[in-house]
């Protein structure tokens, strides 16, 4: 009989191997899915994973989208991973993303059409604070009333969506927008437009910030006391209390950081790729970032790779939509499968499969 | 002439890295009280789980009344008349007594009928129970009654009892023994697992001794001494600890009417606990599990802050301070639960060393970990306390119970505390490691520190303590010199009669 | 402002219709949580149920076959979660989230060609004579069958949990899986059964949404209903009857704000649309604030994985 047997300690090899294994299984199962939809699975996989880099016509544009899409995913996922490692489940990053964009965007619109290099940094700070404030609601309720942060942060996503709708049809509506539910364009004014650092790869200033955040997060988690306390809280809450960790502080800090980073990502999105606040500028990065965080093993370096991979599936998915007519939803299924398979093969980090005979 | 009830023939069972049982054979007669003796980790629990159908052996056979017997699951065992009372009870706190009992029965009668039967059987055996009470509200002794009554309602022929007395007061132990003798006289065989040799001497007809998974000896306990049986268990000479001169120094830890509300819905709150612990003193705190031991440790470690004046360390009011500040001031603690409280299971020994020793050993600088210093300290613990591990990179949970406990105690002792509080320092630890740990704690006191040992093991406390107190229902007796106390006195105190100490 | 448009009887009826999908999903999740498992994938199972129920009803022309299909689809999805958490010991929170993300994508994919269609009508059950009574008639005795069924399901679950041996075993498993295992109960199988039941209920709730409540298929149409079902289980303190209270409270808020939107009372529709979510948060805060009681009622093994170590 096949049985799972606990390992005496987690396998380091498996820790690195399982994400790769999960991606491989996803490709196979994705192929099956595409075949079931009447597509040539090999062509579909090639379009999604290779064409964004190498296709003659689409390649250059696709390559320039890679970091544009990976940037916010990495930024949000890095924040989420810090919370997840502490056992604090912020799944409302999407809402914090939206509120950050609104808060930062509102500052920009209030200053419109001010000129100066200080405008964008100010908006970024406002965006981070907006996202953080939104995340502090579940943090406060959890600390004060022991309310489940998963459900509260998720509910607040819907509140944020509605708030966005209220803003772009109300106070933040563009006066020159012919009544469309959208704000003024941020990219039309230099002072509120996110500068592009390296066009061919789509590296805008937000991507640089994301890289800085990843490094800072790595240092904090591996070398600093706060990171130790966060990890300890996630591993064993009682041992953390014994070590003198204040659980309320960890909840506030981890939710605060992840909210601030999501808010910042939101601000970068509206001052860069999206260009303005509209009801459909949030495309679900806040949710996809959860997959990125897990696929990256909740480790800042892994998250960079996972973020790039996930961005690739977005871009490749668009290409597949264009050339094969594969619906956009298929890519969401694909991403969902990736998380599923990762969680499934993860069992081999802590367990090994053994064959056991039994007596009658 | 008695008949053979159960014959065990060559049972073996392996787990990764351990051979838990190796070709174990013995027989149990009808109506016999048969002891299974052995140290922690000798393979007793695995063996009885095989008899009860919870674990399948790799090899071997069993005969019940001469018939092939190999239960696939506990319900089969129960159907054939084999019942078991677990060491860690298989009870459900949020359910009531009757619900708990019916869950362990194959053909449970309707509720009203069952309730009557529970009352009838429990009274007949001197174990009165109210079927409608929640398990969570019962004392440990009462919970054990539920387990026993559950077995008795199914008319067992063999009753397996896994360390039944480790959680009972001496008086409760007496009641239990009466019940067991009555059962035995009615023809029920009892397989009794324990490492308490005096109990086995007074109760059991035969004993089988296990060591490292093998049967190493059999004996008739009445014809042996506790010492000779202990030597069978450990397979060597038993060394007795040396007596120590005790001259108390100045008061280091002062508790004054310490009160703390338990956060656990089934926990016990502390009420007006007062004591003075002096330099060089080892004070033992006895008590049945769940009488406020955990709460006392939390209050002292700083995990649950109290009113500042309730706890004084060398005259400084520290009740309101958290664990980190208390450590800096010299009050250290080692909680009962090694994995998940004293140590983080999946973290390495290095990180677990850092966990509580950061402040006193200076293992970080402006918040950044000093890796070299941290690793050196972890290595020092491993070397000085003889922690058996392939290396300090290994996860805490990969260590055996005894080795991890040595690591945890070593981590605190090496920080040179002013006062050290330990809860159940040798629970589930093999005899050699337990002796090392007790010695380390006594050496610490001899060097001028004060040690508070909370334990449910009376023998351990009698062996180690200079002074002695009892915790019952969250209240504490007046500490008094350990020398000259009788087991009866202690037993009455543990049962909640704290006046005993005041009158004596 | 004209409040006369707010007819209390029709409000009550639409309230019950709005509450039913959530009630169905919540009663399933309650059983799952009572067995000690936290499945956060309710939203994903609901939306899969919504599209499966819709598509099969359209194809067969029979809403009952559609609802059955929705239950099967929900249960299948739930069993993926069950397999991963019970056999592969994956983290329940993460796996539940994965289920939701996967379900939302899968439903959108399956629903490509069903946008804008009308499903076959689900028959109503007007109880003769009684349904003709003024006020009481329309509120109590004149609904589609599923509303009666949802109430019956709550009653059935209450009876199962509190009056049957199987229900007692299920609660025991959720309370202390190690003890249940040592008494010889198959923790994993019992939990799988509960998980499948929860999935079927969530799927049915989703189908009610697309077949009766809306009735139409639109992408992402559950709009958080699955999460609200999870919140309502907490609100009900794991007691079946209180689920009705929670679901109807939510339904009431939803219907009220929709009516206010329709009346145009001068508050932006977007703000009114927030209220059901805000109310849910407030209700959860009130319930969870009493820590001692909250920890008494929650199944003690909730969310913890079980692995028989021997």
Key traits:
heterotrimer, A: mainly alpha, ABC transporter involved in vitamin B12 uptake, BtuC, two-stranded antiparallel ribbon, 15 helices, B: 504 residues, alpha/beta, Rossmann fold, seven-stranded mixed β-sheet, 23 strands, 24% strand
- Rg calc of chain A: 22 Å
Q: Architecture of chain C, according to CATH?
A: Orthogonal Bundle
- Rounded to the nearest angstrom, the radius of gyration of chain C is 20 Å
CATH topology-level name of chain C: ABC transporter involved in vitamin B12 uptake, BtuC
User: What is the name of the CATH class of chain C?
Assistant: Mainly Alpha
- How much beta of chain C, percentage-wise? under 5%
> How many beta-strand segments of chain C?
2
Characterization of this structure:
The complex is a heterotrimer of chains A (360), B (504) and C (310). With 360 residues, chain A is mainly alpha-helical. Chain A has a domain at 64-306: ABC transporter involved in vitamin B12 uptake, BtuC (Orthogonal Bundle). Helix content of chain A is 70%, strand content 4%. Chain A is built from 15 helices and four strands. The two termini of chain A are 13 Å apart. The model of chain B is unreliable at 500-504 (pLDDT under 50). The longest helix of chain B has 16 residues, at 170-185. Chain B has two domains: 4-234, 3-Layer(aba) Sandwich (Rossmann fold), CATH 3.40.50.300; 251-503, P-loop containing nucleotide triphosphate hydrolases (Rossmann fold). Chain B starts with a strand and ends with a helix. Chain C has a two-stranded antiparallel ribbon with strand order 1-2. The N and C termini of chain C lie far apart (70 Å). Chains A and C meet through helix 7, helix 12 and helix 14 of A and helix 3, helix 4, helix 10 and helix 12 of C.
């Amino acid at each position: 009989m096949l049985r799972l047997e606990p390992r005496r300690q987690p396998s380091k090899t498996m820790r690195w191997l399982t994400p790769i294994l999960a991606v491989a299984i996803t490709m196979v199962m994705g192929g099956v899915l595409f075949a079931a939809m009447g597509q040539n699975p090999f062509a579909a996989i090639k379009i999604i994973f290779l064409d964004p880099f190498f296709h003659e016509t689409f390649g250059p544009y696709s390559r320039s989208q890679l970091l544009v899409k990976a940037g916010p995913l990495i930024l949000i996922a890095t924040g989420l991973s810090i919370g997840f490692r502490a056992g604090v489940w912020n799944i409302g990053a999407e809402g914090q993303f939206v509120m950050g964009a609104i808060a930062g965007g509102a500052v920009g619109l209030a200053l419109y059409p001010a000129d100066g290099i200080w405008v964008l940094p100010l908006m970024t700070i406002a965006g981070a604070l907006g996202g953080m404030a939104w995340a502090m609601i579940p943090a406060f309720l959890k600390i004060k009333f022991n309310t489940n942060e998963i459900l509260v942060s998720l509910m607040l996503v819907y509140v944020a969506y509605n708030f966005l709708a209220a803003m772009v049809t109300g106070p933040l509506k563009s006066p020159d927008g012919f009544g469309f539910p959208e704000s003024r364009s941020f990219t039309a004014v230099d002072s509120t437009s996110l500068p592009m650092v390296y066009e061919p790869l789509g590296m805008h200033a937000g991507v640089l910030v994301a890289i800085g955040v990843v490094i800072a997060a790595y240092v904090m988690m591996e070398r600093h006391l706060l990171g130790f306390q966060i990890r300890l809280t996630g591993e064993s809450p009682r041992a953390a209390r014994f070590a003198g960790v204040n659980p309320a502080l960890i909840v506030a800090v981890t939710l605060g950081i992840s909210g601030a980073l999501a808010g910042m990502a939101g601000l970068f999105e509206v001052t860069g790729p999206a260009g303005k606040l509209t009801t459909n500028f949030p495309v679900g990065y806040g949710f996809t970032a959860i997959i990125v965080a897990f696929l990256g093993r909740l480790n800042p370096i892994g998250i960079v790779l996972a973020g790039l991979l996930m961005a690739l599936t977005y871009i490749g998915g668009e290409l597949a939509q264009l050339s094969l007519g594969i619906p956009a939803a298929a890519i969401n299924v694909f991403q969902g499968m990736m998380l599923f398979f990762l969680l499934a093969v993860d069992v081999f980090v802590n367990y090994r499969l053994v064959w056991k005979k039994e007596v009658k | 002439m008695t008949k053979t009830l159960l014959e065990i023939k060559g049972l073996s069972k392996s787990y990764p890295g351990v051979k838990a049982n190796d070709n174990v054979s013995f027989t149990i007669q009808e109506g016999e009280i048969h002891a299974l003796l052995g140290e922690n980790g000798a393979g007793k629990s695995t063996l009885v789980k095989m008899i009860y159908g919870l674990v399948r052996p790799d090899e071997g056979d069993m005969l019940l009344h001469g018939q092939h017997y190999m239960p696939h699951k506990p319900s089969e065992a129960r159907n054939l008349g084999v019942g078991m009372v677990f060491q860690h009870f298989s009870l459900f706190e949020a359910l009531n007594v009757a619900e708990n009992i019916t869950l362990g029965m194959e053909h449970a009668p309707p509720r009203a009928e069952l309730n009557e039967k529970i009352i009838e059987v429990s009274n007949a055996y001197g174990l009165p129970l109210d079927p409608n009470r929640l398990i969570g509200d019962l004392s440990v002794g009462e919970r054990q009654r539920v387990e026993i009554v559950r077995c008795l309602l199914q008319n067992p022929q063999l009753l397996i009892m896994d360390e039944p007395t480790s959680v009972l007061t001496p008086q409760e132990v007496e009641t239990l023994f009466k019940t067991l003798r009555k059962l035995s006289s009615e023809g029920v065989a009892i397989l009794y697992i324990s490492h308490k040799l005096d109990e086995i001497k007074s109760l059991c007809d035969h004993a089988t001794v296990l060591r490292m998974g093998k049967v190493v000896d059999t004996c008739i306990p009445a014809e042996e001494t506790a010492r000779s049986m202990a030597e069978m268990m450990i397979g060597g000479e038993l060394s007795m600890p040396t007596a120590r001169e005790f001259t108390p120094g100045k008061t280091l830890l002062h508790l004054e009417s310490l009160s703390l509300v338990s956060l656990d819905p089934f926990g016990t709150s502390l009420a007006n606990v007062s004591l003075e612990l002096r330099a060089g003193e080892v004070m033992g705190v006895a008590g049945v599990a769940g009488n406020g031991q955990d709460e006392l440790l939390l209050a002292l470690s700083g995990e649950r802050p109290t009113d500042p004046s309730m706890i004084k360390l060398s005259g400084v009011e520290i009740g309101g301070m958290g664990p980190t500040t208390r450590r800096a001031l010299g009050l250290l603690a080692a909680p009962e639960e090694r994995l998940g409280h004293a140590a983080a299971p999946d973290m390495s020994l290095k990180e677990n060393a850092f966990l509580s020793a950061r402040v006193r050993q200076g293992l970080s600088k402006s918040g950044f970990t000093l890796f070299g210093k941290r690793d050196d300290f972890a290595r020092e613990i491993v070397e000085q306390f003889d922690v058996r591990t392939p290396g300090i990179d290994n996860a805490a949970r990969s260590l055996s119970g005894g080795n991890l406990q040595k690591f945890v105690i070593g981590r605190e002792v090496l920080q040179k505390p002013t006062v050290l509080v330990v809860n159940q320092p040798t629970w589930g630890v093999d005899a050699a490691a337990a002796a090392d740990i007790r010695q380390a704690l006594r050496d610490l006191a001899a060097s001028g520190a004060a040690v508070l040992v909370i334990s449910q093991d009376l023998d351990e406390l009698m062996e180690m303590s200079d002074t002695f107190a009892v915790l019952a229902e969250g209240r504490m007796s007046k500490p008094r010199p350990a020398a000259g106390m009788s087991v009866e006195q202690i037993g009455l105190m543990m049962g909640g009669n704290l006046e005993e100490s005041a009158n004596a | 402002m004209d409040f006369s448009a707010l007819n209390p009887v029709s409000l009550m009826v639409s309230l019950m219709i709005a509450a039913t999908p959530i009630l169905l999903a919540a009663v399933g999740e309650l059983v799952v949580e009572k067995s000690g498992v936290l499945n956060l994938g309710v939203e994903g199972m609901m939306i899969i149920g919504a599209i499966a129920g819709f598509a099969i009803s359209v194809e067969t022309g029979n809403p009952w076959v559609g609802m059955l299909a929705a239950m099967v689809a929900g249960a299948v999805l739930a069993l993926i979660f069950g397999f991963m958490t019970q056999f592969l010991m994956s983290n329940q929170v993460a796996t539940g989230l994965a289920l939701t993300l996967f379900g939302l994508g899968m439903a959108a994919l399956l629903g490509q060609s069903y946008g804008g269609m009308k499903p076959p009508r689900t028959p109503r059950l007007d109880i003769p004579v009684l349904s003709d009574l003024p006020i009481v008639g329309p509120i109590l005795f004149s609904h589609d069958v599923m509303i009666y069924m949802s109430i019956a399901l709550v009653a059935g679950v209450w009876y199962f949990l509190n009056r049957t041996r199987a229900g007692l075993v299920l609660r025991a498993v959720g309370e202390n899986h190690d003890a249940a295992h040592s008494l010889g109960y198959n923790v994993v199988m019992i939990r799988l059964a509960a998980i499948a039941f929860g999935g079927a209920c969530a799927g049915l709730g989703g189908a009610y949404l697309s077949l009766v409540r809306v009735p139409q298929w639109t992408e992402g149409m559950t709009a958080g209903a699955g999460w609200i079902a999870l919140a309502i289980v907490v609100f009900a303190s794991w007691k079946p009857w209180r689920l009705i209270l929670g679901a109807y409270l939510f339904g009431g808020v939803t219907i009220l704000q929709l009516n206010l939107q329709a009346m145009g009372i001068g508050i932006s529709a977007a703000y009114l649309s927030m209220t059901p979510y805000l109310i849910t948060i407030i209700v959860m805060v009130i319930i969870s604030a009493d820590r001692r009681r909250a920890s008494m009622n929650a199944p003690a093994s909730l969310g913890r994985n079980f692995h028989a170590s021997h």
